[in-house]
Amino acid sequence: MTLPLASTTYVEATWILIVKSVVIFAVIFSIVPLLTVVERKVLGRFQARYGPNRVGPFGLLQPLADAVKLISKEGFRPENAVPFLWGAGPAIVVFTGIATLAILPWGPVQDIGGTPVGLYGIDVPIGVLYFFAFGSIAFYGLLLGGWASGSKYSFLGAMRSAAQLISYEISMGLALLGAIMMSGSLSLVSVVEAQGSLWYVVPQFAGFLVFMVAGFAEASRAPFDLPEADAELVAGYGTEYGGMRYGSYAMAEYIEMFVISGIAATFFLGGWMGPGPGWLDPIWMLVKVLALIFVFFWIRATIPRVRYDQLMSLGWKVLLPLATLNVVVTAILVTVT
Fold it and tell me: Which of 2, 112, 186, 238 could bridge 278 with an S-S bond, Cβ 3.0-4.6 Å?
């Protein structure tokens, strides 16, 4: 049973929030390994070859083998590294990614066993600002990791990350601003509820495209994976990391990809909206998120890495003006109508 929309303002019990936190951790640490094997399978099919097919049935246990390999690797820290900051870098990016997942709405408030429960971690009235705040903190994890490694390759990768993330965050914010003006709220739950009659991907198609392209750069995914360009920087900010510290950076990339897809589905694809009874709401949201994640895989398999000057030119000369124009047009239409 779905409760009235006004009930989304209620205060949940502490034990419910604790259960939600455990569920978010359990889901993300389960789905990230699956995404790695799915991506390798998809890339294999795009490139006319097999993906993982030796470890477990259909290669499904390959993520477990990778995790055991990373965990069992001997730890090593460069002599020139700054110990505390070098170790804090991977932890920061993982923490901020998981914290951002808390605001993704998977459904409205539902009556579960006689207790009203919102199908989201938290519904803060400044949900968009929450998203960008934690995204900005993640930037420090990359910068600190690269600088504290004491390696020129790592430092160059960190500086690329700084310039790239700052440049594309502006376009991402402006891309979401059109949907925010149409919904009249910064709450992600309210934005989804405002799309009951029309998903914002229709009137905000330009904003959707800008957000997705900027999302590739924010997640450092191909063709915008310049901070870790192996042909130039060995592995960028992660060059001096091994074992699970290296695995943490890799995991953070997949978490960021999941977050970007979740935000795009929330603001432009109607979030949990879909045909059928209310218990299908989380499934519809998951389908939309996975469809957008597939686009990440598709682009990686088809488009080569761009040059760094092309990356920055696209962000400042194309995406930023387009996002600004979209905001101006949306503001005029919202005012007039």
Answer: 2
How many structural domains are present in the chain?
A: 1
Q: Which element (helix H / strand E) includes 252?
A: helix 243-268
How wide is the angle at C-alpha 236 spanned by C-alphas 235 and 237, nearest 5°? 115
State how far the Cα of 108 lies from the Cα of 14, in Å rounded to an integer: 19
For residue 303, give every residue at least 6 positions away whose Cβ sits within 8 Å of its Cβ, in sequence order, or none. Answer: 222, 223
Provide the pLDDT for residue 10: 55
Q: Are 168 and 217 in contact (CB under 8 A)?
A: yes
Higher pLDDT among residues 124 and 263, named by residue: 263
Residue 110, helix vs strand vs coil:
strand
270: left (phi over 0), alpha (psi -120 to 50) or beta: left
| CA proximity to 225, closest of 299, 323, 320, 313 | 299
Written as six digits, the tokens of 257 are 């990809």
* Predicted pLDDT of residue 3: 52
Cα distance between residue 192 and residue 123, in whole Å? 12
pLDDT digits (tens, 9 = 90+) for 251-283: 999 999 999 999 999 999 999 999 988 889 999
